[in-house]
Amino acid sequence: MSVDNRLMKGNSRPEQRSLPFKMPFKFICARSIKDNTTSFQKVFASEGHSEALRSFGLRLGAPSGFVTARRPPERQLHPRSPAGRRRRRNAGVSVQGGPEGGMTMMIGREWWLHVALLCIPLLAVYLHIPQPELSPALYIWHSSGRFFSFRGNNIFYKDSFGAVGSSDVVVLLHGFPTSGYDWHKVWEPLNQRFNRVIALDFLGFGFSDKPRPHRYSIFEQASVVEALINHLGLTDQKVNLLSHDYGDTVALELLYRSDHNRTGHLAINSLCLSNGGIFPETHYPRLMQKVLKDSGFISPLLTRLITFPLFSRGIGDVFGPYTQPTEAEYWDMWTGIRFNDGNLVMDSILQYINQRLKHRDRWVGALTSTSTPLHMIYGPLDPVNPHPQFIHLYQKLVQRSTVSILDEHISHYPQLEDPTGFMNAYLNFINSF
């Protein structure tokens, strides 16, 4: 005989089963359920006996053929009364009355405490994750470099002697958020053409110090370059600047100082730019960049939550579909960022985007008025400086400059995506004057 039939007879109960209360029961036939389902649901929900009834194969609001049981409470309490709310708080359940007297069960606030207790140690573990180890290639690059001091901070640079019989010097200025290691694929070809090839990690990047809190600026980075040239004893030597992205704006500040004979300025022989957002009106920062630079006091928290998967996905978006970095190359970029906790200063460094807008007349003006030989190497698939808006504006405003547009599948990092095409374009420019 089924449980339902035994209950309908009222003479027997399922063996070895009992409800969690010892009260007389009133059994209601299935025909009356339609009229009483709502009230039964309220009573059993408020008393917390739904689970007990389910263990008997009974459920609230059951279809025809099932029966349900009701326990008359010893004391009826209005759910919105102080006593009723206290009863439900003690049970770990809060009940709110609706406009029509209905009630909504809500889980108590205790679960927030459980979540917090779980997240705190996990967050603590993440915040102390050590930086990745240097890959063999990155280790060799680091070992072959040196440091000099700038205003109490150590600046990493790499300086190598190349072509014999040439006195030409080239200084390489990298982009955001990476480092001077961006030039490693064109280092040897440059060594074969120039007597001296010099690259540095800007303050806050790569293997250089990354002080925080610190007010990073393009002006300070230009002073870092001037200090490096002075440190190497090349103050009177004409240098060729080859820059990319963030480095383009640093190069324009150096160009401005040179053309205005500022104290300590470089003697610039030529300037070659590549895929830099030098025009605010045609520059489209990535979402993460916009979030970090404009989030105020939340930014320091957000920088701690940047992970390798998030970084690699973001940086991969500015490479062409056929020129994506390898997993090892992604890790080399990320290692340079994590070195000295560089991820924690990204929000401060990103203020350069606002500085470009504020000082547009100064830097674009230097570009349009200089007599220094200029060249632009451009990857046309760049989503940060999209084609054709960027290059058309450049050609319109900087008519003295020559331009090299690489293959259509080359994007924001031309020196990494197409090092051969990049070097051919640059050497054609250098050998033209």
Structure description:
- By secondary structure, the protein is α/β, with parallel strands linked by helices.
- The chain has helices at residues 3-9, 33-47, 50-55, 82-90, 110-127, 136-143, 187-193, 218-231, 246-259, 287-294, 299-304, 308-316, 327-338, 346-349, 352-358, 360-369, 389-397, 414-417, 419-430, and strands at 26-28, 68-70, 93-97, 103-107, 146-150, 153-161, 169-173, 196-200, 238-243, 267-274, 374-378, 402-405.
- The strands form three sheets. An eight-stranded mixed β-sheet has the order 5-6-8-7-9-10-11-12, with helices on both faces.
- α17 (389-397) links the parallel β11 and β12 (402-405).
- The protein is globular and about 100 Å long.
- It starts with a helix and ends with a helix.
- Mean pLDDT is 82; it is low at 1-69 and 93-107.
Keywords:
433 residues, eight-stranded mixed beta sheet, two-stranded antiparallel ribbon
Distance between the termini: 104 Å
Q: Which structural class do the helices and strands define?
A: alpha/beta
Strand content: 5-15%
Overall geometric form: globular
Average pLDDT rating: 82
Radius of gyration: 35 Å
Strand order of the largest sheet: 5-6-8-7-9-10-11-12
Q: What percent of the residues sit in helical stretches (DSSP H or I)? A: 40-55%
Number of helices: 19
Low-confidence stretches: 1-69, 93-107
Number of strands: 12
